[in-house]
Structures are given as structure tokens and as C-alpha cells.
From TrEMBL:
Keywords: Cell inner membrane, Cell membrane, Hydrolase, Lipid biosynthesis, Lipid metabolism, Membrane, Phospholipid biosynthesis, Phospholipid metabolism, Transmembrane, Transmembrane helix. GO terms for molecular function: CDP-diacylglycerol diphosphatase activity. The gene is cdh. This is CDP-diacylglycerol pyrophosphatase. Pfam families: CDH. It comes from the Bacteria.
Amino acid sequence: MKKAGLLFLVMIVIAVVAAGIGYWKLTGEESDTLRKIVLEECLPNQQQNQNPSPCAEVKPNAGYVVLKDLNGPLQYLLMPTYRINGTESPLLTDPSTPNFFWLAWQARDFMSKKYGQPVPDRAVSLAINSRTGRTQNHFHIHISCIRPDVREQLDKNLANISSRWLPLPGGLRGHEYLARRVTESELVQRSPFMML
């Protein structure tokens, strides 16, 4: 595996534990706005008209949709096609639940298409907001570019990140985090939620 891909996979595991590197804020909106978009707009439009709009992609049989985030030019959200509130849901550790992290990693290509050229793997971040850090009660993974300062901190601590959960020296942006290295082959086989 390329070093850049490995560094990215380290970041997604940190994102699971950190659960809140980025926020998708819907000021003044209700907490089930995303769920309504998925269940009342994207899914019906795909099923009735073979058009995923307003989503970028709808995969009912695979259990997910990809929606262009309102924030940022390259940010997307991957969400289930059924009710999962957030990281606290026991469904995320159920072996029959789709591996949403692997699906989100595959959906990073939407960023490159929008950008008009490839976005390097080492620049991609997958993040999930914690229960207390989110505005929406529909599970979603942010697919976006990693902040340069976070990338720098990870690069600086690469030697300290192993295949075991360990504290990230110095944390990130004033918060303590656990970090673990995950290979792409591990991610294909097992959701990071099952690795915690």
C-alpha cells in the first residue's frame, strides 16, 4: 500500500475516535433534516425516476447514499438509507450492517470529479461527529479534505501510530485522541467501529 493511503487510513480511525473534526451545521434546521433528504427525496426519486437527486448517488441495495454537503466545494456526506441516529447506535457494530467507512473511502472519487483532477489520498479525510458534537440525528460520514495542520500533526507522529489503539502524542487541536494504523485490506474486511 502506498504511504499516502496508509496515512489516510490512520486519519479515518482517528476520525472515528475523535468524532468531530468537522461539523456540518444547519443553522436553524431541525435535527432530522438529513434523514428527510435521504428518505423523502433521494430514495423516492431514485426508485421512481432513476434519478438520485438531490443526492449524487443512491444505492438502495447496498444501503447508502452520497450527498453533496452544503459546506465546502468538495465536501460530501455518505449516509445509510435507513434509520441510524449516530455513533452510539448498536447497528454500527452489527456484522450485517454495511461497512460505511469502506463505502465512504470509495466515494472519495466524487471529490476528484468535482475538483476536475485527482485529489490525493493523503488529502482526504473521513470524519464523524460525536453525539454531543452533531446537529443531525442521522448517521453520516463527512468526506472532505483534511486540514493542513491536522495532516502535519499526523505526519509528525507517524512513528508513534501503530496497529494498537494508543494516545496520539500532543492530541489534535487541543483535544486528546486515540490513534491506530489501519491498512486498506483491514478496512475492506472490517469497519473501524468493530475495531474499537
